Structure formats: structure tokens, C-alpha cells
């Protein structure tokens, strides 16, 4: 019995940690996809292209150790108009807080290819000790003008 527990407990704990951090990577992927779609969609009466919204977040204002339903469309949510314009509204409870930082908000945004124009950030305090896990993803344009991930997913204190 002791041998079984010695093998199973660390595996179970590792599985719990991985499941908690998968939220951040999935939500950053979703946020990038929604921003890339917004970037490619015509805006306004003249159909302006290559638009980036205003920066938004952090939303919610504090991460949670427990899963919580958060309404990103609530008027009190930091960056509510941006979350709404992107269609970013987590359908399931979350632990992390999310931030979108645009280098240049507006339309006809151009930058050097493969240089960040927007950064997506997830911060969490999974064990309530005050130290936060941070996940960062950047996006910029490719030579064709599409918004694509730039660099790798940066993780700091992945599981605290």
C-alpha cells in the first residue's frame, strides 16, 4: 500500500497543478484568436482594416485560488468595452486575471514584421501565498499583414 501511495500521490498532485495552469494557456490562445479575428475584420462605415482595440484589464482585478465565474462584459470590469468588442467572455469559471496590452490602438496598424504589437497576459495565485504565476504571449504581423504569435509563450513561476 505504501509503495502505491508513494507513486500515486506525486502523480496526482502534478496532475492537479497541470490542470490549473492549462486554463492560462487555453485562455491566452483564445484571446489571441479573437484579437487576430478583430484585426482582420473591417470596422466602421469605411471598413477600416488592421485594427487593434484599446488595452484592457487586468480583469478580474485579483486572481482567485478557487474557480469563479467572471463576467468580462460587466460595466465595472476594467476594459469591458474591449472585452466586448473582441467577444472575449469566458464561459466557464476561471482562476487567473487577464490583461491585453496593445502598443498601438486604432486602425491601419502596421509594425515591423514579427515584432510585438499586442501582449496577452495571465496572472494567477494558485495557492494563495501572494506569489503569482505569469504567462505572456505576444503577437505581431507576418509579412502578409496577419496577426500571428511572436516568440514563445513565456512562463514565470508556472506552478508557483
Describe the structure in your own words.
With 160 residues, the chain is α+β, with helices and mostly antiparallel strands. It contains 2 helices and 5 strands, in the order H-E-H-E-E-E-E. It has a 5-stranded antiparallel sheet with strand order 1-2-3-4-5, with helices on one face.
The helical percent reads: 25-40%
- Ranges with pLDDT <50 over ≥5 residues? none
Structural class, by secondary structure, is alpha+beta
Global shape: elongated
Notable features of this structure?
single chain; 160 residues; alpha+beta; five-stranded antiparallel beta sheet; 2 helices; elongated
SSE topology:
Blueprint: H1 2-40, E1 56-59, H2 80-86, E2 97-102, E3 118-124, E4 133-141, E5 147-156
Antiparallel strand pairs: 1-2, 2-3, 3-4, 4-5
Give me a quick take on this structure:
The chain has 160 residues and is an alpha+beta fold.
Amino acid at each position: 500500500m505504501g509503495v502505491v501511495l508513494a507513486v500515486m500521490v506525486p502523480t496526482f498532485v502534478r496532475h492537479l497543478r497541470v490542470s490549473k495552469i492549462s486554463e492560462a494557456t487555453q485562455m491566452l490562445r483564445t484571446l489571441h484568436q479573437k484579437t487576430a479575428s478583430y484585426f482582420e475584420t473591417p470596422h466602421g462605415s469605411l471598413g477600416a482594416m488592421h485594427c487593434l482595440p484599446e488595452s484592457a484589464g487586468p480583469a478580474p482585478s485579483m486572481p482567485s485560488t478557487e474557480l469563479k465565474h467572471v463576467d468580462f462584459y460587466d460595466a465595472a470590469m476594467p476594459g469591458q468595452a474591449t472585452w466586448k468588442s473582441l467577444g472575449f467572455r469566458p464561459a466557464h469559471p476561471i482562476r487567473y486575471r487577464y490583461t491585453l496590452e496593445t502598443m498601438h490602438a486604432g486602425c491601419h496598424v502596421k509594425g515591423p514584421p514579427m515584432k510585438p504589437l499586442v501582449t496577452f497576459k495571465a496572472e494567477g495565485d494558485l495557492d494563495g501565498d501572494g506569489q503569482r504565476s505569469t504567462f505572456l504571449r505576444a503577437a505581431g504581423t507576418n509579412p502578409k499583414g496577419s496577426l500571428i504569435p511572436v516568440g514563445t509563450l513565456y512562463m514565470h513561476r508556472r506552478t508557483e
